[in-house]
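Exercise 4. Each item below gives a protein and its sequence. For each, produce the structure-token representation.

Item: Teleost multiple tissue opsin 2a (Hucho hucho).
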Amino acid sequence: SMRSNLNVVDSNGSIEDPLSSLDQEWNEPPAKRLSRTGHHVMSVFLGSIMVFGFINNLVVLILFIKFKTLRTPVNMLLLNISVSDMLVCLCGTTLSFASSLHARWLYGKHGCMWYGFANSCFGIVSLISLAFLSYDRYSTLTVYNKQAPDYRKPLLAVAGSWLYSLFWTVPPLLGWSSYGLEGAGTSCSVTWTSQTPQSHSYIICLFIFCLGLLWYESAGDQTPNLPISGRTL
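Answer:
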């Protein structure tokens, strides 16, 4: 199977999974999981994402600074997404891009932990911000409200996205699950394939808490009002 093809055989003849192990020689090339040509192709894609992602999000930030009309409550969430995505390009993609050029992870165990933490943290911030943005658009379409723009809720959502992200990305640094190499061995993430109780409990709690958060948000708006334009006279 595809899963079994990712396993490698050590010198004692036993099978180990390189994707979930932090106890390896970090300065040595990882087990062959992708050809050098494959690594170079990946570096081209990562380089493109890094450059264009950084430039595009930088343009968004400049526009927000230059034009006051763009600083609406809902756009605070878009700004938060741009900031987190730009940080991914700076703090994460640069490392995986350089590692792909050399066909191995270059930054050791602590660099892998930083990469896994940064990518996970900024990625979750973007996802939570998108969830808040979707809910805001849903509320706008279903609830008629003539009140003046309210910045309090979007700013609370921005702060909440960062706190939620840190709540789930700091524990792997402290021993609840962990960060390790993934995929082709040139990037790092939470060790989803680890068979330890800590990893299992972390994944289960992350999944259940996420579903609970979605249920809480949806339960708070069971009977939305139709906008004026959608009501019958």
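Check: The chain has one domain: 34-219.
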